Write a sequence for this structure.
């Protein structure tokens, strides 16, 4: 018989990633009517990693906590005992989760970028990133995304409220990414990749900039891609779209059907704020199978301490994103304060870890544990394998095979009743209980 390790999180219990009694796969024919069937002969995408976002707001909150609590937060995210994060994100210039609008060059008309400096990031953002990298033993992929170019490069003359990049500054803006990457490298922080623009179809009250499908394509093809190559940065990955799943295929089609542009593009980033359009992910993969799909941002709007629904939103999206060819999953802010900020336009949100800067208390949301059911047990390089649930809509499940051969199965029951099911695999089967409002990770070799 083959031993199956079991880790469980369940509402109205004390289970939070708790290790339960092991189960054993056997050749028994007895089985429940509901099945979760694992087929390692079917293989899909390679998993790249999990993580969250370093923002100025997260760093401001982090450094208002005691040294002991800062260490706890780093342990919670960047160790194997915690969520084992390996793949994170940060912002180029300010975003809404900064303490105010800022850019690295605020001298109007400085086309040569002679006044470019990342001095502001040295105060809070870079120190937190460096601490996290050290905690990970020096290994952490970092994706960087701009929310807006400097105000003077834009048609509306400000960083907020949308506007567009002025045509005459496209070359300077492309060089801006290169200067940013090199400046961070001088600080000992390697940038793995960049996205062209955060949410390029959203006019926000905070930092935002609009690109049509064609404008993003042309900027990557004619400016950003060539500039990174000229600067010796051709290994930096370029991610397009970085917005909601409702338009992910439409944007990818315009950009990636242009071969000259596609040659510079590693993959397509997406967010969850438009709802469940998971089929658009598979549609994009089927049309452009050589490009990666990466979840680059998601959070719950408003603060929701002790809400179980938020965790289930995470579990539902992660499972369905993976089952539709997503290779990695990056959450939004790593940590926020007791009001879901700071945020310079009061766009307060939730985070898996909330740090009460008044009481020095670290609070773990349900989302923290739901993320952990994937990030703790999946190893970069794992391959998604066949996983079919006979009770779709009641149980949700996904499965991977880690590089060491371990099978990782995650099963979620968001209903209000316990469900008995049979886990079936080529190694045998076993009856399992999925408690109401629970998520369980099963591991076997």
């Amino acid at each position: 018989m083959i031993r199956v390790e079991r880790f469980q999180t369940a509402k109205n219990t004390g289970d939070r990633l708790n290790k339960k009694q092991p189960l054993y796969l056997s050749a028994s024919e007895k089985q429940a009517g509901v099945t979760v069937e694992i087929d390692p002969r079917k293989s899909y995408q390679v998993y790249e990693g999990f993580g969250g976002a370093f923002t100025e707001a997260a760093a401001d909150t982090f450094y208002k906590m005691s040294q002991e609590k800062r260490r706890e937060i780093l342990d919670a995210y960047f160790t194997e005992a915690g969520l084992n994060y390996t793949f994170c994100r940060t912002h180029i210039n300010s975003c809404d989760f900064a303490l105010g609008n800022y850019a690295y060059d605020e001298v109007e008309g400085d086309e040569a970028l002679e006044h470019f400096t990342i001095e502001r990031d040295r105060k809070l953002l870079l120190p937190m990133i460096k601490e996290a990298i050290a905690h990970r033993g020096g290994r952490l992929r970092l994706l960087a995304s701009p929310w807006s170019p400097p105000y003077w490069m834009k048609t509306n003359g400000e960083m907020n409220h949308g506007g567009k990049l002025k045509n005459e500054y496209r070359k300077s803006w492309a060089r801006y990414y290169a200067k940013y990457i090199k400046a961070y490298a001088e600080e000992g922080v390697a940038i793995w990749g960049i996205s062209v623009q955060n949410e390029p179809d959203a006019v926000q009250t905070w930092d935002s900039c609009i690109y049509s499908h064609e404008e993003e394509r042309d900027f990557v093809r004619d400016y950003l891609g060539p500039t990174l190559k000229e600067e010796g940065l051709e290994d930096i990955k370029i991610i397009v779209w970085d917005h909601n799943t409702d338009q992910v295929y439409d944007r990818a089609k315009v950009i990636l059907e242009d071969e000259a542009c596609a040659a510079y593009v590693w993959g397509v980033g997406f967010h969850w704020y438009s709802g469940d359009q998971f089929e658009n992910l598979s549609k994009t993969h089927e049309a452009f199978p050589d490009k990666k799909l990466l979840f680059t941002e998601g959070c719950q709007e408003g603060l929701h301490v002790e809400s179980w629904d938020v965790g289930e939103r995470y579990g539902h999206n992660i499972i369905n994103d993976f089952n539709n060819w997503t290779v990695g999953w990056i959450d939004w802010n790593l940590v926020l304060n007791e009001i879901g900020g700071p945020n310079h336009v009061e766009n307060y949100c939730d985070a898996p870890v909330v740090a009460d800067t008044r009481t020095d208390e670290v609070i773990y949301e349900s989302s923290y544990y739901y993320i952990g059911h994937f990030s703790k047990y999946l190893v970069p390089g794992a391959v998604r394998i066949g996983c079919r649930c006979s009770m779709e809509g009641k149980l949700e499940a996904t499965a991977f095979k880690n590089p060491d051969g371990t099978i990782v199965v995650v099963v979620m029951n968001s209903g209000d009743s316990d469900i008995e099911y049979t886990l079936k695999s080529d190694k045998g089967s076993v009856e399992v209980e999925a408690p109401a409002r629970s998520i369980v990770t099963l591991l076997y070799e």
Observations:
- Residues 213-230 form the longest helix (18 residues).
- The chain has a mean pLDDT of 97.
- The two ends are 11 Å apart (CA to CA).
- Residues 53 and 333 are 5 Å apart (CA to CA).
